[in-house]
Each structure stands twice: as C-alpha cells, then as structure tokens.
Amino acid sequence: MFPAGKKERDDIPGNLSVGVDYILSPSFRVSASYSLFMEKDTNWDGREKLLDGNSYDLAFGLEYDVSNALTFSTGYIYTKSGAGANYQTDLSFDLGANTFGAGARLRLSPRMDIDIGGVYVVYTDFTKKISPLRHRFCPLTQRHTSSQPTGLPSASTSIYKGSDHANFFII
C-alpha cells in the first residue's frame, strides 16, 4: 500500500479568489467572497483526472461595532467539493461542508485587541459502493454493510462522513 521510497506528487492547486466588503454604516459591515480551487489542473500523479470538477467556496460575513471597544462578527462558508465517486477512497476523500462562525473583538487599547471566536463545520455525507477485494477496511472512514452473514461480502458500502466539528480559539 505504501512502498518504501516511493515518491508521489501532491501539488497545491491554483486558487482564484475575489471578495467585496461593503460598509453599510460606520458600525456595520458586510462581506462576500468566492474562491475557486483549480484542482483539475494540478499534478496529483493522475488522481486529478478522477475529479468531477474543481472545488469552490462561497463566503458571507457580517461585522458590527457595538462600541469603540467591542465588535461582534458572524459568517458562513459553503464549500462544494469537486471530488465525486471515482476520486473517493478509504485513504483519500474530500467532502463538501457548511461552516458557521462567530466571534468578538475586545479593544483593550489602540494597539492591543483580544479576538475570540469559534467555528462549527457540518460535512456532507457521501456513500460509495466498493469491492472489499480492492480496498482495505479502514474503521476511521468506512462503515461496511453486507447482507451475507459469513465470508467476504460481494460488495460493501463505504460511508465517508466527516464528523461535525466545533473549534474555539482566542487570538
């Protein structure tokens, strides 16, 4: 599965992003952005040919100054993965997601701020039927089902599911 000394390409895809910020009032701002990840044009030793298309993100955000010392923000990112059934394996899979974020900034002085925030990510479920003779079982990424009570199943279902994640951070 992992031959000693074998080298594989895993280049970083090109990225094209555009965004806009708009000040609705001195204390209220909105933003939006679009990012395209050009994975189909990346050299991944042929795996890029298995993609259905390129991935992209659509992001939206709001920021509100409660006072000169306190700002609240919130945002949302929709991620569309370009990986389809042919790309997904038990060791390499890519799922779309919905990401929600919120935060606050406390201005302690003109030169010092404390930022606090969190994100919650909900990944898109994906199901793929694979042959157990071609793929090894990986308990972290697959749940196999079979109608046969004994022996190797003729086919199994792999459910690629990223758990929901919540992160909290202070900067």
Tell me the number of helical segments per DSSP (H or I, 4 or more residues long).
0
Oligomeric state of the chains?
single chain
Regions with pLDDT < 50 over 5+ consecutive residues? 135-158
Task: Calculate Rg over CA atoms.
Answer: 21 Å
* Shape label: elongated
Q: Mind summarizing the main beta sheet?
A: 7 strands, antiparallel
Work out the number of β strands: 9
Distance between the first and last residues' Cα? 41 Å
Percent of sequence in beta strands: over 45%
Q: How much helicity do the residues have?
A: under 10%
Going across the major beta sheet, what is the strand order? 1-2-3-4-5-6-9
Order of helices and strands: EEEEEEEEE
Structural class: mainly beta
Mean pLDDT level:
79
Describe this structure in words.
It is a single chain. The protein is an all-beta fold. It has strands at residues 14-25, 28-38, 55-65, 70-80, 97-109, 112-123, 126-130, 156-160, 165-170. The strands form two sheets. The protein has a seven-stranded antiparallel beta sheet, with no helix packed on it. It has a two-stranded antiparallel sheet with strand order 7-8. The radius of gyration is 21 Å and the shape is elongated.
Brief overview:
The protein is mostly beta strands.
Topology:
Layout: E1 14-25, E2 28-38, E3 55-65, E4 70-80, E5 97-109, E6 112-123, E7 126-130, E8 156-160, E9 165-170
Antiparallel strand pairs: 1-2, 2-3, 3-4, 4-5, 5-6, 6-9, 7-8
Give a quick set of tags describing it.
elongated, mainly beta, 50% strand, 9 strands, 171 residues
